[in-house]
UniProtKB/TrEMBL annotation, chains A, B:
Self-association state and partner proteins as the record states: Part of the FGAM synthase complex composed of 1 PurL, 1 PurQ and 2 PurS subunits.
Primary location: cytoplasm
Annotated localization: Cytoplasm
Protein name as catalogued: Phosphoribosylformylglycinamidine synthase subunit PurS
Record EC number: 6.3.5.3
GO BP: any one term: 'de novo' IMP biosynthetic process
Length: 84, 84
Protein backbone atom coordinates (compact mmCIF):
# COMPACT_ATOMS: atom_id res chain seq x y z
CA UNK A 1 0.00 0.00 0.00
CA UNK A 2 1.24 3.45 -0.81
CA UNK A 3 0.46 6.50 1.25
CA UNK A 4 0.90 9.62 -0.83
CA UNK A 5 1.00 13.09 0.70
CA UNK A 6 0.35 15.92 -1.72
CA UNK A 7 1.04 19.56 -0.85
CA UNK A 8 -0.49 22.19 -3.11
CA UNK A 9 0.42 25.85 -2.73
CA UNK A 10 -0.37 28.99 -4.66
CA UNK A 11 2.57 30.25 -6.68
CA UNK A 12 4.48 33.09 -5.03
CA UNK A 13 3.25 35.62 -7.61
CA UNK A 14 -0.43 34.78 -7.06
CA UNK A 15 -2.45 36.76 -4.53
CA UNK A 16 -3.85 34.71 -1.67
CA UNK A 17 -7.03 36.37 -0.34
CA UNK A 18 -7.77 33.46 2.01
CA UNK A 19 -4.30 33.83 3.52
CA UNK A 20 -4.87 37.57 3.98
CA UNK A 21 -8.09 36.92 5.86
CA UNK A 22 -6.40 34.41 8.16
CA UNK A 23 -3.60 36.92 8.80
CA UNK A 24 -6.12 39.64 9.68
CA UNK A 25 -7.92 37.25 12.00
CA UNK A 26 -4.65 36.38 13.76
CA UNK A 27 -3.82 40.10 14.07
CA UNK A 28 -7.23 40.81 15.58
CA UNK A 29 -6.44 38.19 18.21
CA UNK A 30 -3.19 38.67 20.12
CA UNK A 31 -0.95 37.39 17.32
CA UNK A 32 0.05 40.74 15.83
CA UNK A 33 3.54 39.62 14.90
CA UNK A 34 2.46 37.26 12.09
CA UNK A 35 4.00 38.64 8.90
CA UNK A 36 2.49 36.44 6.26
CA UNK A 37 0.06 33.56 5.82
CA UNK A 38 -0.35 31.45 2.70
CA UNK A 39 -3.11 28.86 2.55
CA UNK A 40 -2.79 25.73 0.46
CA UNK A 41 -4.20 22.24 0.26
CA UNK A 42 -2.97 19.00 1.67
CA UNK A 43 -4.21 15.62 0.46
CA UNK A 44 -3.54 12.07 1.55
CA UNK A 45 -4.08 9.42 -1.08
CA UNK A 46 -4.04 5.67 -0.57
CA UNK A 47 -2.99 3.49 -3.49
CA UNK A 48 -2.61 -0.29 -3.56
CA UNK A 49 0.85 -1.84 -3.85
CA UNK A 50 -0.19 -3.26 -7.22
CA UNK A 51 0.09 0.15 -8.89
CA UNK A 52 3.01 0.26 -11.29
CA UNK A 53 5.08 3.36 -11.65
CA UNK A 54 3.56 5.16 -8.67
CA UNK A 55 5.58 8.32 -9.08
CA UNK A 56 4.46 8.90 -12.69
CA UNK A 57 0.87 8.12 -11.70
CA UNK A 58 0.89 10.63 -8.84
CA UNK A 59 2.58 13.25 -11.01
CA UNK A 60 -0.16 12.86 -13.61
CA UNK A 61 -2.95 13.00 -11.01
CA UNK A 62 -1.51 16.23 -9.60
CA UNK A 63 -1.02 17.80 -12.99
CA UNK A 64 -4.38 16.85 -14.45
CA UNK A 65 -6.74 17.09 -11.49
CA UNK A 66 -5.46 17.84 -8.01
CA UNK A 67 -3.60 21.07 -8.72
CA UNK A 68 -4.06 23.89 -11.20
CA UNK A 69 -0.55 24.16 -12.65
CA UNK A 70 -1.22 27.68 -13.95
CA UNK A 71 -1.48 29.19 -10.49
CA UNK A 72 -0.39 26.41 -8.15
CA UNK A 73 2.76 24.49 -7.34
CA UNK A 74 2.65 20.99 -5.95
CA UNK A 75 4.96 18.52 -4.36
CA UNK A 76 4.38 15.05 -3.00
CA UNK A 77 5.87 12.36 -0.82
CA UNK A 78 5.26 8.68 -1.47
CA UNK A 79 5.56 6.22 1.40
CA UNK A 80 5.20 2.50 1.01
CA UNK A 81 3.56 0.94 4.02
CA UNK A 82 2.58 -2.57 4.91
CA UNK A 83 -1.16 -2.97 5.46
CA UNK A 84 -2.02 -4.17 8.93
CA UNK B 1 12.51 34.70 10.71
CA UNK B 2 10.47 31.59 11.34
CA UNK B 3 8.73 29.64 8.61
CA UNK B 4 5.94 27.56 10.07
CA UNK B 5 4.22 24.82 8.12
CA UNK B 6 0.86 23.76 9.48
CA UNK B 7 -0.93 20.61 8.32
CA UNK B 8 -4.60 20.26 9.20
CA UNK B 9 -6.47 17.04 8.57
CA UNK B 10 -9.93 15.78 9.39
CA UNK B 11 -9.94 13.22 12.17
CA UNK B 12 -10.14 9.63 10.97
CA UNK B 13 -13.67 9.21 12.29
CA UNK B 14 -15.01 12.25 10.42
CA UNK B 15 -16.52 11.84 6.95
CA UNK B 16 -14.69 13.71 4.21
CA UNK B 17 -17.15 14.54 1.39
CA UNK B 18 -14.55 16.63 -0.46
CA UNK B 19 -12.17 13.68 -0.44
CA UNK B 20 -14.93 11.39 -1.75
CA UNK B 21 -15.57 13.74 -4.67
CA UNK B 22 -11.87 13.88 -5.53
CA UNK B 23 -11.72 10.07 -5.39
CA UNK B 24 -14.73 9.79 -7.72
CA UNK B 25 -13.15 12.26 -10.12
CA UNK B 26 -9.90 10.24 -10.15
CA UNK B 27 -11.88 7.05 -10.78
CA UNK B 28 -13.71 8.67 -13.68
CA UNK B 29 -10.33 9.44 -15.21
CA UNK B 30 -8.00 6.48 -15.63
CA UNK B 31 -6.98 6.32 -11.97
CA UNK B 32 -9.34 3.60 -10.83
CA UNK B 33 -6.92 2.10 -8.36
CA UNK B 34 -7.07 4.99 -5.87
CA UNK B 35 -8.46 3.55 -2.65
CA UNK B 36 -8.91 6.61 -0.51
CA UNK B 37 -8.50 10.38 -0.61
CA UNK B 38 -8.56 12.71 2.40
CA UNK B 39 -8.42 16.44 1.85
CA UNK B 40 -6.91 18.77 4.41
CA UNK B 41 -5.38 22.21 4.64
CA UNK B 42 -1.80 23.32 4.51
CA UNK B 43 -0.67 26.75 5.70
CA UNK B 44 2.65 28.52 5.67
CA UNK B 45 3.10 31.23 8.27
CA UNK B 46 5.94 33.69 8.51
CA UNK B 47 6.87 35.01 11.95
CA UNK B 48 9.70 37.36 12.87
CA UNK B 49 12.67 36.08 14.86
CA UNK B 50 11.66 38.41 17.69
CA UNK B 51 8.74 36.16 18.66
CA UNK B 52 9.36 34.49 21.99
CA UNK B 53 8.24 30.96 22.59
CA UNK B 54 7.34 30.21 18.96
CA UNK B 55 6.13 26.72 19.60
CA UNK B 56 3.60 27.76 22.23
CA UNK B 57 2.44 30.63 19.99
CA UNK B 58 1.91 28.34 17.00
CA UNK B 59 0.15 25.76 19.16
CA UNK B 60 -2.24 28.42 20.40
CA UNK B 61 -2.89 29.79 16.90
CA UNK B 62 -3.72 26.29 15.66
CA UNK B 63 -5.94 25.49 18.59
CA UNK B 64 -7.85 28.78 18.67
CA UNK B 65 -8.15 29.71 15.01
CA UNK B 66 -6.49 27.63 12.30
CA UNK B 67 -7.96 24.24 13.12
CA UNK B 68 -11.22 23.07 14.60
CA UNK B 69 -9.99 20.71 17.32
CA UNK B 70 -13.39 18.99 17.55
CA UNK B 71 -13.15 17.49 14.07
CA UNK B 72 -9.60 18.21 12.95
CA UNK B 73 -6.09 17.18 13.90
CA UNK B 74 -3.12 19.42 13.29
CA UNK B 75 0.63 19.21 13.28
CA UNK B 76 3.27 21.78 12.47
CA UNK B 77 6.93 22.20 11.63
CA UNK B 78 8.88 25.27 12.64
CA UNK B 79 11.98 26.24 10.66
CA UNK B 80 14.21 29.12 11.54
CA UNK B 81 15.58 30.79 8.44
CA UNK B 82 17.86 33.74 7.90
CA UNK B 83 16.19 36.54 5.94
CA UNK B 84 17.99 37.31 2.70
Amino acid sequence: MYKVKVYITLRESVLDPQGSVVKQALHSMEFKSVEDVRVGKYMELTLPSSVENVEATVEEMCHRLLANPVIEDYRYEIEESVAQ
